Amino acid sequence: MTTVEITLPDQLALEAKRAGLLSPELLEKWLRKQLKAQRVDQLFSAMDRIAAVHDPAVMSPEEVASEIAAIRSDRRQNSRG
Question: Which positions ≥6 away from 59 have C-beta within 8 Å?
């Protein structure tokens, strides 16, 4: 178990204590809820970034063959020097 010390304005600390909001059980529950919400936000943010990536154009088999032939031709020319 870890002990955490926090600094709050006196009035806020008094009100929170009177309301029972500073109990270890309630603080643990609140922190877990906040962590879960943060993970969900991060997941949706990542999903938005993924959705924003444009898919590359689909190439036909002929276009793929043409690209391969061009690369092979370049390699042959570069190897001859």
Answer: 67
